[in-house]
Structures are given as C-alpha cells and as structure tokens.
C-alpha cells in the first residue's frame, strides 16, 4: 500500500542517503510535513509515524486543526505562508516557527504580539532569490538589514532563511539556486550565530536542496499525495 506512513518511510530513507552523500551526520535534515489543505486524519497518521513538525499556510485552517489534535503529544507548528499584517497576532499566538517573514513591519509585530508565557518565536526570513516583484520574500540586497532588525527583537529568535525558488525541472538550475542561497546563509550566519536553519527544498527538489546544505525540507505532496482543491 502507498499510504502516508509508507511515503514518510521512503522520504526518510532518501534523506538519510542524501545526508550521507553530502557528508553530514544522520539527522542533520529536519523533515517538515506540509499539511495545508490536508485532513487531520493524515496529520494523525504522520504523527503516529513519528513526525513532529507540521507546516501550514492559512491561519484559520491551522487553528482549527490544532484544536482537533489537542489530544496528541505536542506537535511543532510552522507557519510557512504569506503573512498579512492583520494575521500576525494569531500567528504569534499559535505557532512555534514562522518561515515567511519578509519585511520589518511583520517581524516587529510578531515580536510585540508574542505572548510572554511562550518561548521566543523561531523565525526564518524568506528570501526572494530572483528579485521578482510579484514574489514574496526579501531581496538579497535587503536581507542583511532585515536580519539585523529581526535579531534585535526581544520575543523572536532568528533561526535562518527560507526560500521557494521558481519551479523548474532543470536540476542544474535547481542546484545553482540552492547554492546561491547556501552562500548567502553562510555569510549572514557568521554575523548572527543563532542562525542554524536553512529551510529549502520541497517535494520536487529536495534532493539538490539537501546536497547544497538544506537543514529543513518542506514536503507536502511527497508525503500526503495531491492536495484536495
Ligand atoms: C505548499 C508548500 C510546500 C509543499 O509543497 P509540495 O510541493 O507539496 O511539497 C512547501 N513550502 C511552502 C512554503 C508551501 O507553501
């Protein structure tokens, strides 16, 4: 059968092999299960198979799922979708991580609105590698300033970068994009020691992403199958 559990095991075997190929210890890449638009039954199956990290793109949908899953041992929730400023409060109250911070206003609001009884919110800055206006993410020209600002905020912990390179089946292009991100990450990490996370690689390109230094891959369809409309 090809259920969620089997798909998770297949992905985990692939990840282990890629870690070895890139000369990194086993377990250096975190598997983040992207459960957006998928039913809670599939999240339960993934949690039963041992996954703890789940990614969601829509605040309301995520909160409803979290409520339905309250009986499970604590899961780690990552917000990975575009952020409107009227959603920052709900995100800061209901998530452990945010991967899609791309401007200072959002970073400031997330820090101000993080409830004091919770640990600092883990934040990755989303990078728009190609600099296209239409895509979310900060440009490489602005990333140093945004890192400095984010790192100075009290209730946030700057963990690294996230990127979604333009989709392509050309593995050379995939590799070049990931390599450029990896270089940028290394450069900023030397100034911000809390940076330990490079969130890059999705179902169709996680191989080259891991080989270029990804520490967290975000898999949706590879684990859960096609998303319901
Ligand atoms: C939907 C989504 C994913 C997962 O995409 P798949 O191709 O299904 O693996 C990963 N990252 C982000 C930011 C997403 O929005």
How would you sum up this structure, described in words?
With 229 residues, the chain is an alpha/beta fold. The chain has a single domain, classed as Alanine racemase (TIM Barrel, Alpha-Beta Barrel). 41% of the residues lie in helices and 17% in strands. It has nine helices and eight strands. The chain has an eight-stranded parallel beta sheet with strand order 7-6-5-4-3-2-1-8. Helix 4 packs across helix 5 (104-113). The mean pLDDT is 96. The structure holds pyridoxal-5'-phosphate. Residues 34, 36, 57, 80-81, 164, 202-204, 218-222 line the site of pyridoxal-5'-phosphate.
Summarize it.
This protein has helices spanning 4-21, 40-48, 59-68, 88-94, 104-113, 143-152, 171-189, 206-211, 221-224, and strands spanning 30-34, 53-56, 76-79, 97-101, 121-127, 156-163, 197-199, 216-219. The protein has 229 residues and is α/β, with parallel strands linked by helices. The mean pLDDT is 96.
Taken in chain order, the helices and strands follow as HEHEHEHEHEHEHEHEH
**Rg, nearest Å:** 17 Å
Q: Classify the helix fraction into a percent range.
A: 40-55%
Bound compounds, please?
A: pyridoxal-5'-phosphate
The name CATH uses for the topology is TIM Barrel
Q: What is the CA-CA span between the terminal residues?
A: 24 Å
From the spread of the alpha carbons, the general shape counts as globular
CATH class bucket: Alpha Beta
CATH architecture: Alpha-Beta Barrel
Average pLDDT, all residues: 96
* Secondary structural class: alpha/beta
Tell me the domain tally. 1
Largest sheet: 8 strands, parallel
Find the CATH superfamily. Answer: Alanine racemase
Q: How many helix segments?
A: 9
By DSSP, the count of extended strands is 8
Strand portion: 15-25%
Strand order of the largest sheet: 7-6-5-4-3-2-1-8
Low-confidence stretches: none
